[in-house]
Amino acid sequence: MPADGAEPVVIPADLWQRPDMHTALTNRDIGHLFRLVRQYAGISQTRIGVAVGFSQGKVSEYMQGKAQVTALDVFERIADGLHMPDPARMLLGLAPRILTGVTFPPTPIPPRDGTPASSLLSVEQVVIGSRQPDDTCDVDMLTLAWIVGRLDGHMDRRTMLLIAAGLTAESATSIANPWERLTLALSGTRADQEDTVERFEARTIGFHRLEETMPARSLYQGLTAHLNELSTLLQAGLPDRLRRRLAATTGEAAVLASWIAWEIKQPGQSAAFDRIATLAAQESGHPIIQACAYAYRSYAVRGAPAVQNIRLAQQHLPALGDNATRAWLLAREAEELANLGDRQALVRLEQARDAYGEARPQRERAWTRFLDPGRMAAYRLSTYVNLGDEHRVIDEGQAALNALSHETDHKKIAAVHADIAAAQLRIGDLNEGIANGRLALETAQRTESRWAFQQLAGVENALTGKRDTSARELLAAINSAHRSLSQPSA
C-alpha cells in the first residue's frame, strides 16, 4: 500500500462546477478551495500538500484562514498539482494550458452591442442599439476582458487567443454573467457590492490590455456594453467609497472608449466618451483621468496643438506619484516638440526616462499597462526621427525593436519600422528603407490601427518623387491602405 501522501490526487470533475468552488476560485481563496477538496473529494491535508508542494501544516494554515496565497507562481503550482481544468484555471486568474482540439478563431472575437439603462454617466447618446441578452457572443468579450484583467503576469497574443478560444458560451456564462452580478450588487450585501466593483475594475484593466493586441473594432461594442453596466450600477445607491471607485473605473473605461472611437473614425462618439470621462473624473475625485483623456487627444493632431493637449494633461497630474502617466506625457511632449524642431525635446526625453525609472506601470492605472521599455524606446526613436537625426535613428531603431515583444507589440512595431524606414530613405538607403516600410505597412494593416497608419506619414514623404519601381509600388500600397482605412465603420 502506498503511503497516504503518495496516493494520487483525483478530484471529481463535477466538484469544479460547484457554485461554492467557483466562489473560492474567483476570490482566489485557497483555504476555501482546500476545504472543498477535502470535504467533497475526501483528500487529506497531507495528500493535498504533496500534490501542491506544501507541508501538511501549511495546508492546515490555509484551511484555517491563517495564511493567504498571493504569488502567481504559487497559484500556478496549486492549479497544476490539483490537475485543475482550464475553466477553473481561468476563474483563478491563470492562463489555460494548451487546449487540445481548439483552433484559433479565424475572425476577431465577436463583440456585443448594448443600450444604456441610465442617464448618469450614460452612453445613451453614444451607442444606439438593442441588447440581446441571450446572445452567446454577448458574454464572451466582457468575460475575456475580466479574465485578462485579473492575470498577474504578462499576456502575449497566443495566451489571449487560447483564453478566447476556451470561452464557450457555457463556460463564459458560468464565469461571469454580468446581469446576475448586477442584480446581486443591487440587492445583496456590502460584500456582494464590493465583489462586483472589483470585477468591473478588473474588466476595465482587461480592456486596456486587450487594446494592445486586438483591432479596435473588435473591442468597441464590448467596451460600450461594459460602460452601460457601469452606468446602471452607479445608480444603485452604493456606499460613497464604492461609488467613487466605480466612478473612477468608469472614467478609465471611457477614456479608452474615446480613443477606440477615434481609431475607428467615429469622432462624435469619441467626444461623447470624453464627456463621460470628465464627469467620472469629477465624481470620483480622480482628476488624473482627465490627464489620460488629453493625452489620447494629443494623438489626433500634430505639432503645436498636440503639445497644447499634452500640457493640459500635465496640469491634471498630482504633485507626487503617478510616475507612469508622468513619463508617458513627458515622452509624448518630447516627440511633438521634436516635430516642431524644438531641441527642448531632448530635455523632455531625459525627464521621461527619470520618471519611468520611478514608475510602476502595471500597478498605477488601468491605462498605464501599455508603458514598457519597448514603448519608451519607441518614443526616443520618434523624437530623433522628428529632429532629423537620421543616423541616431538607425541605432535607436534597433534598440527599440530589441525591446519590443513580437508576440504583443504589433502596433508599436509598425510605428518603429515606419520611423526606421523614413530615416533610411532620407539617408539614401533605398533597399532597406523600402523593406522596413513594407513591414510597417503589413503590421499596420494587420492591427487595423489608425495610429500605426499615421506613423507611415514619414515614409510617404520620403518616397514621394522617387523613380524606383519598388518605391512607387510601396507608395501606391500605402495610399491604397489609407483609402481603405478612411471608410467609416458601420
Low-confidence stretches: 1-5, 98-139, 168-179
Q: Secondary-structure element sequence?
A: HHHHHHHHHHHHHHHHHHHHHHHHHH
**Overall average residue pLDDT:** 77
Strand content: under 5%
**How far do the termini sit from each other?**
68 Å
The share of residues in helices is 55-70%
Helix count from the secondary structure assignment: 26
Q: How many distinct beta strands?
A: 0
* Radius of gyration over all CA atoms, rounded: 25 Å
| Structural class by SSE content | mainly alpha
What's the helix and strand layout?
Elements: H1 19-26, H2 30-41, H3 45-52, H4 56-63, H5 72-81, H6 86-91, H7 137-150, H8 157-166, H9 169-175, H10 178-187, H11 190-210, H12 216-234, H13 240-263, H14 267-284, H15 288-297, H16 304-314, H17 323-339, H18 344-357, H19 361-364, H20 373-387, H21 390-403, H22 410-426, H23 430-447, H24 450-454, H25 457-463, H26 469-485
Helix pairs in contact: 1-2, 2-4, 3-4, 3-5, 7-9, 7-11, 10-11, 11-12, 11-13, 12-13, 13-14, 13-15, 14-15, 15-16, 16-17, 17-18, 17-20, 18-20, 20-21, 20-22, 21-22, 22-23, 22-25, 23-26
